[in-house]
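Marked as duplicate of an earlier ticket. Keeping the data here for the record.
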Amino acid sequence: MKLQKIVSHLQKLHPKEIDLSLNRIKILCEKLGNPQDKIKAISVVGTNGKQSTINAIFSILKESKIKCNVYTSPHIQKINERFVFNNNMLNDDELIDLFEEVEKKNNQNPLTFFEALTACYFYKAAQYPSNINLIEAGLFHRFDATNILKDNLASIVCSISKDHLEWLPKDQQTIEKIVFEKTSSLLNSNIIVSKQNSIKTTESIKKSISQNLSNKLFFNEDYSYSNGENGFFYYEDKFGGLKLPLPNILGQFQLENISTAIATIRQLNLKIKDDDIKKGITKIESIGRLQEIKHGKIKNLIKNNQLLLDGSHNEDGARVLNEYLQTLDCNKHFIIGMMSNKDHEKYISYFKDISSLTTVDIPNQQNAISGKKLKEKFGNVSNVKYEENIEKAIKTLSLEENDMLIITGSLYLAGEILNLN
């Protein structure tokens, strides 16, 4: 297939998957006419909640008939997901044309895959100068390819926790260093800071951006939400309060992400109607993030039992997933596959009341830890076993009525499940 062929070519332009530098992306974008200088962007940084926050903003803006371009990573099922323009994902032919045009300008110069994709996004986005761009930063942010904007509408700082530590020196693998990498180069515009998992993290963010002249909003200081009754929750900021229906996505943490989305939209004075916010948050599209799978081949294997798919892969993701699961009165069976560079023991330590745990291999991912090795890492869990693939893992489960199956540990695993399903 032509798209797969050109993707494979782009992946070979640099010997490293990640090479933290802004030089290559700047050189290529200059050849492309510096398209990043011609767009209106909301930048989203952090460790967890970036896609959920973007999805909430996107849904509300669509409800308001505002056109958006959206750049996220990684993709779950197909690479097209990373390229949304005028509210629609590019099809294969459009993506091929875009890749070929940008690669022609690049002329075989060294470029990481993410840098190539980011340059392609900026180049296409410049064709829609009136659209709002929702741009998810990749690894850290300071040397991330998306960090070549000269100005933006706002920067959102989602929940920050320890992840990708292998890219930091061993003596700098701290939350303070991660906060610095993610926030020290934020642009001077508006900064909206989501709920963090500790006061220490919030204080680190405040210190990091103390010299930044942006207008700053902090969760629980400048905007907040509270739980209501009968299917509602309440949002409040300096512009007033909103009584809102519960969103169509699961998890208490999603109310935090949605509140940050609303705070950003209201701060930017985009003239969004309250009804658009109310309708938008009930139409959020989210895949692989606490997603209930209600039909399909994988779902059929467990018949009437509930199936949850979640791509969480670090300690903060495990924490919020467990918080949601603890609200459910049922036996919980886990199938987990993970990448090798994660803190596997820390991840599993957050989960309580595990009825059974099965580790699996993640197919098509050379950087995944084998299910056998992952089982060893999970040695403290009394009833852990290994199966080589998802189908075998599910068929070995002894599910009773009302039991739940949770498949988690990696967005790459989530993508495989959705494709199999």
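See parent ticket for discussion. Residues 151 and 187 are 6 Å apart (CA to CA).
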